[in-house]
Amino acid sequence: MRPLARKRDSFLNFKFGLLVTSGYLGLMSDLGELVSYHVGMGNLAEFAKVKSQYVPEPFPTWTILDIAGLAGPGLIIETKAVAVPPS
Questions:
Q1: Domains, the chain, with CATH or none
Q2: Please, what's the b/e burial string for 62-74 (b: 16 or more CB within 10 A of its CB; e: otherwise)?
Q3: Which residues are registered as beta bridge partners of 33?
């Protein structure tokens, strides 16, 4: 799979996860925190571009970490997101 497709899949998984595991019909605008773990920072600009297509303003806090590797071979990005349900 191409790196851009992997980045896009990461955000599609967020959308699916918000619907399935959150207990409410979450929206990408409900994200309060985003953490991304990158094996190398060479694709960060491309990742940010894909993120901007899915995560609307006001943007959540975003922590970016450069790491040596992930658990599976060929994995290049892992993301964690925390949604904050509307009151």
A1: 3-83 (3.30.1330.40)
A2: eeeeeeeeeeeee
A3: 61, 82
Burial tier of 32 (Cβ tally within 10 Å: 0-12, 13-18, 19+):
exposed
Q: What is the per-residue DSSP string for 10-65? A: HHHHHHHHHHHHSSS---GGGEEEEEEEEESSTTHHHHHHHHHHHSPSSPPEEEEE
Locate 4 and state its tokens: 């851009």
- Residue 79 amino acid letter: T
Mean pLDDT value across the chain:
77
Per-residue pLDDT band for 1 (boundaries 50, 70, 90) equals very low
